[in-house]
Write a structure and sequence with these properties.
Layout: H1 2-39, E1 43-48, H2 56-71, E2 76-81, H3 89-97, E3 103-107, H4 108-111, H5 130-138, H6 140-153, E4 155-170, E5 185-188, H7 192-199, E6 204-207, H8 213-219, E7 224-228, H9 229-234, E8 243-246, E9 251-259, H10 260-264, H11 268-302, E10 306-309, H12 312-321, H13 323-333, H14 335-342
Helix pairs in contact: 2-11, 5-6
């Protein structure tokens, strides 16, 4: 009995020493983290994008701002402006160039107006699936494009979010084959490649800013449009369109852009923070977007929208109809770059 009791104080002292060591380590870690945050400069930055607050893209942008604020101890404040409130996609690119906006989310097709090789991302049916799109955007082909954009425009790419594969929606016509597109007045992104894509289907392509599309559809200015499922739902296009075709004709990469003039003046620890959080939120946004798309489609169908899923034969017919776009843009973009994207893994 005595021997057992004599062991107890020894055990307690060891346990207490262990607890004290663990507590000390936690305190040192917390102090170090606090010191790192305190060392961050005080900054107030603007982040613009064209997406509705309910969209995973908008949530990803806000998450970026929130994490940066937390990890900088509140020293770096990033104000997020959704819904094109400080400019359309094109205007946001221009604003970054002149230093009015420091960060923006902009589709590759809009940035291609400033650096044409980015048109490669919108070549119809270039990407086999999401994994292939990520291999291009996150790999050597993507980095080459981002370096070229930086050299030409002074705009840095720090991540690539996505809005997914584009679909076709219409008010009156169910689209199951290329011939169904003939004569439809169709909203497209204001980019020559997008215009060429729907001219190849004998539609009547009408360029229009994303912020204007709902009103255009509602008033009958245009009869249809193409956007990924998330955009269709977030912008309420399903309320003014009866049909949606899961054509998957293009993948919509959304570039996370930064003003390089600002970037060059940043301390290294801030650059590291921005890069790490941009990639963290990129991965979160991609996963979130792909998780909610199926639910969005169920809600659209429940709301009365007719969903058309193309068979392999129907998809092949659309690919065949859009081949002239590849012929036209192969020389403009560069055969070597296209081949590298096609073979990326």
């Amino acid at each position: 009995m005595t021997s057992r009791l004599s062991l107890q104080p020894t055990f307690t002292r060891r346990a207490l020493r262990g607890l004290r060591s663990a507590a000390a380590a936690l305190i040192v870690g917390a102090v170090a983290a606090g010191s790192a945050a305190a060392a961050m400069p005080e900054m107030s930055l603007k982040f613009g994008h064209p997406y509705n607050e309910n969209h995973p893209l908008a949530k990803g942008a806000q998450k970026f701002a929130d994490i940066v604020a937390e990890k900088s101890g509140g020293n770096i404040k990033i104000q997020v402006f959704p819904n094109s409130t400080i400019g359309s996609s094109r205007e946001l690119v221009e604003s970054i160039q002149i230093g009015v906006v420091q960060f923006a989310l902009v589709p590759t097709t809009n940035v291609a107006s400033f650096y044409p090789p980015l048109d490669i991302f919108y070549l119809p049916f270039l990407f086999r699936d999401s994994a292939h799109a990520y291999a291009v955007s996150d790999g050597e082909v993507g980095q080459k494009l981002y370096d070229g954009l930086l050299a030409k425009t002074g705009i840095r790419t720090i991540a690539m979010y996505e809005s997914g594969f584009r679909t076709i929606t219409t008010a009156k016509t169910k689209v199951a084959m290329p011939d169904d597109m003939k004569g439809i007045k169709f909203r497209v992104v204001n980019n020559p490649l997008n215009v060429a894509t729907f001219k190849a289907l004998d539609a009547n392509p009408t360029p229009m800013a994303l912020s204007e599309v709902f009103t255009g559809l509602q008033q009958g200015t245009v009869d249809g449009q193409d956007n990924p499922v998330g955009n269709v739902k977030a912008f309420g296009f399903d309320k003014v369109q009866k049909f949606i075709t899961l054509s998957h004709h293009q993948w919509a990469g959304i570039m996370f852009l930064a003003d390089d003039k600002m970037w060059k003046d940043l301390p290294e620890e801030v650059k590291t923070l921005f890069k790490e959080v941009a990639i963290e939120t990129q991965n979160w946004e991609r996963a979130e977007l792909n998780a909610v798309e199926g639910q969005y489609l169920k809600e659209m169908e429940a709301g009365g929208m007719t969903v058309t899923r193309l068979s392999p034969e129907q998809a092949a017919a659309f690919q065949k109809a859009m081949e002239p776009v590849w012929t036209e843009y192969r020389g403009k973009i560069g055969a070597e770059l296209i081949d590298a994207a096609v073979s990326a893994k």
